[in-house]
Amino acid sequence: MTQYDYDLFVIGGGSGGVRAARLAGGLGKRVGIAEEYRMGGTCVIRGCVPKKLFVYASQYSEHFEDAPGYGWTVGETAFDWPALIAAKDQEIARLEGLYRKGLENAGVTIHETRARLVSRHEVLLEATGETVTADHILIAVGGRPKLHDALPGHEYCITSNGAFHLDELPKAIVIEGGGYIAVEFANIFHGLGVDTTLVYRGVKILGGFDDDLRDHLQETMIAKGIRIVCHQILEKVSKRDDGRLEGRLTDGETLVVDQVMLAIGREPNTNGLGLDRAGVDTDQRGAIKVDAYSRTNVDNVWAVGDVTNRVQLTPVAIHEAMCFLETAFKDNPTEPDYKTIPTAVFSQPEIGTVGLTEHQAAEKYEELEVYRASFRPMHNILPGRDEKMLMKLIVDAASRVVVGAHIIGPGAGEMSQLLGISLKARCTKDDFDATMAVHPTAAEELVTMYKPTYIVKNGARVD
Ligand code: NDP
Question: What is the pTM of this model?
Answer without folding.
Answer: 0.97
